[in-house]
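new request in #modeling-help
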Amino acid sequence: MRTVSGRTDRVVVVGAGLGGLACALHLAGSGRQVTVLEREPVPGGRAGRLGVDGYEFDTGPTVLTMPDLIAEALGAVGEELDDWLDLTPLDPAYRAYYPDGSTLDVISDTTRMAAEIARVCGPREADGYLRFVDFARDLWRWERADFIERNLDAPTDLLTGNLLRLLANGAFRRLQIKINQFFRDPRTQRIFSFQAMYAGLAPHDALAIYAVIAYLDSVAGVCFPRGGVHAVSRGMAGAAEKHGVQIRYGTTVTRVATAHGRATGVVTADGEFVPADAVVLNPDLPVAYRELLPPGRQRRLTYSPSCVVLHVGSTQGYGRIAHHNIHFGRSWKGTFDEVIRRGELMSDPSLLVTNPSRTDPSVAPAGKHTYYVLAPVPNLDRAPLHWPGDLTRRYADQLVATLEERGYVGFGDGIEVLRAVTPADWAAQGMAAGTPFAAAHSLFQTGPFRPPNLHRTLGNVVFVGSGTQPGVGVPMVLISGKLAAARITGTVS
Ligand SMILES: Cc1cc2nc3c(=O)[nH]c(=O)nc-3n(C[C@H](O)[C@H](O)[C@H](O)COP(=O)(O)OP(=O)(O)OC[C@H]3O[C@@H](n4cnc5c(N)ncnc54)[C@H](O)[C@@H]3O)c2cc1C
């Protein structure tokens, strides 16, 4: 494994996103003196917080998987997960709603899930599910060790026994084709393949290696921290500070200072120079290259689709929904084609509706409710739509009307607070192509082909977060923190 050159005693981490915080914890655990400089007044970055009139909303991730990775980051400084977070496993993890009016609960317990699939789709489909679980569990085991939780320096690093196992098991075929080998019912085909969208691709374009995402949320389980997912950011920041990491909020870094092919520190918007032996950059990777580092030629990347999120505080409650609800439209391949290939808004939307106040009433005023509605939309590279103003209002109205048609009776009338976040907002927050989901996980933007976490020429600059390896989403970003720290310490903690 390549590591940064020279001394590494004092490290400056730019950004207290989950990637930056995980890196800071691992570095502090190995005795480095760590300073985190964060632009915002709170930690978490995309996993942030929006408070309006007594309603508290998570601004980013809501589907929290793999809490053992949070435990591992906290464990790097000797802290226990239970002392920082109160996690509730969600049962069901999701409820799926189909256009024919049927519903399917996604339950992490495989025996109960097989029974649920048998109830909705018949016993043969349940057998397919059990075979899928074995397949996806093996995939996760093979991918995790060799390709995800490992710093890859060259494509030849991929040549391991597990690569052969993946090839032999069809992991490099298209995801949808592979999923259809286990499932015959379009409802199960959808619920175990839509996660490709998290990787920025349609199931008919993504590789079957991404079945691991369905494994992580559908089988390994989804949990919810009391106070919302932002509590993860606060917990990690609190533990880091307790162990000597200095976190300076409200501090924007404007450039990395360099001399003789090395970073010497960073310069803040106030003109302060903060010296460092090594610098870790958590801002969106293409933006870090463009705005913080000396000019150089940049590789052109293809980005994941973006999303519009509606944060709704409401007087309306719905007894029959779950914490996470996925509403599928009639169209399937056509929806992915609209958003990803043609750069159009969904004509027949598939939506994620999360209802956090159901699990934790403290996030809404007494007797009231919070909803988080996520609609995939094209990124600004694919469709440079003019979001501010009229389009946002019309699209929000359209989403509310769609929810009313799909059974959320009186949804519009119940709204007390509504905030719509669009690709224009993600771009304003410094996310390339106006998407919070970074470069898509196509084959040549995955593993050793994804932008590396060591700067090409500056020997002591490291990247962390969803723009680098291994990729997007809370679990991957936590792993990226560990991998970035390993580039500095030379060992994976
Ligand atoms: C709407 C939405 C829904 C999502 N849903 C899920 C989900 O359900 N499950 C899941 O696993 N993942 C989900 N994700 C993805 C997940 O949130 C991200 O992959 C992850 O949080 C990214 O973390 P990061 O550390 O890479 O970056 P960020 O969170 O962006 O952190 C970067 C930090 O750097 C700071 N910064 C930037 N520039 C500067 C500067 N110049 N000076 C100082 N500080 C700076 C920023 O303020 C920020 O705090 C979702 C994301 C969004 C936005």
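bot summary: The mean pLDDT is 96.
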